Amino acid sequence: MLSKRMLVYPVLCAALCWSCMSCGPERSSMTDIQVLRMPYLQTALADSMTVLWRTDAGTESGVRFRKKGALAWSEAEGVVRATNTSLIENEVTLVKLEPGARYEYEIFTDEGQLLPETSLGFRAPVAAGYSVFSFFAVGDIGEAVEGGGTPDKLGEALSSYVDSLNFGLLLGDIVYPEGKSEDYDNNLFRYFREVFPYVPVFTILGNHDWHEPEANYIKEWKLPGNEHYYSFDYGNAHFIALDSKNGDFYDYERQVAWLEEDLSRVAGTENWKIVFLHHNGRSCTYKDAYENVVSLYPIFEKHGVHLVLNGHAHTYERLNPMNGQGEVVREGEQKGFTSITVGSGGKLRGVGTDPKAFTPDPDNCRYPGLVAAYAHDWAFLKLDISGESLRGTAITTHDLKVVDRFEIRK
User: I need a surface site. Which of 8, 151, 230, 376 has the fewest CB within 10 A?
Assistant: First the structure.
């Protein structure tokens, strides 16, 4: 249990307060320990949520949490560990959460409350089978501003939607140039201080994250399974994360066998089936079609995958539904799966510090009617599931302009 000293702090106000969310370290008024990385939420599964933050010191960690409007607080103790940088990681898992309820929480290291002037909160995972929830998807976000990226604009844009989002998907190339732990705070976390403490994210590896991932990427995130590829259920949807590495896939044969087994396990259910990975298959962007992604198309068709999300190309492109041969499904035929590139979270090809012209590869545009919509702009994708309907809205990060809308029905 948390110490008695931790029980005397007053109730925090419910309204969100960003006054202590500057770019520098945060120091509690009751302790000399500094917060060097704001809290971020992971493994939002079943009735649980994991809260992580990093400090300059500490040997004990804990979280107090309660459903909004409740009087009594619950308490959870966690673990404190050294990291592969100079920071100390605090990790606390909260359990027995009420499905879909909004919670507020407070973080403690060595019995001292950190960030006492900041209202922290999240929405618990919805119940199994629940059919109304929202999430975002975006990739290629980790180029720092000084390197020509726009993570500051993305973080600001997403902060406008935190109350309506249940979680997010980060589609690889999360930290440039080589996904090293030492670059995470400067290139990523400092820009999402108004998002990550409130909205949990699930991540996948991109080619820029593939620098000794066991010693870097996996040290930064707490994900299901082996953390390279994994699946999870959320409400009435089944999500599958794949590690496409440099386009050739991590442990390709074993990963594909796992994919088949995982999709077979949910066969016959009415769940949405959503795959997310970094590299694209067929496309009319400046990227080639990656053969190992295209090789999965028959599996997607066989098991009724509805949506495939990827990054890699620094642009936004939605394709018309395809079948297992990568052919556009014609009206009146089977539904097919929809593939969308959302690599528009940071830099754009041919804009700013990227001198290469944005010229779609003609070899990749030989498929009649492949592209349904595209927008060469900084953007993220907001997805809303409601029963048998999945609606998508592509929103620009610099002015919140809608550049694409679509609906998929089961």
Answer: 8
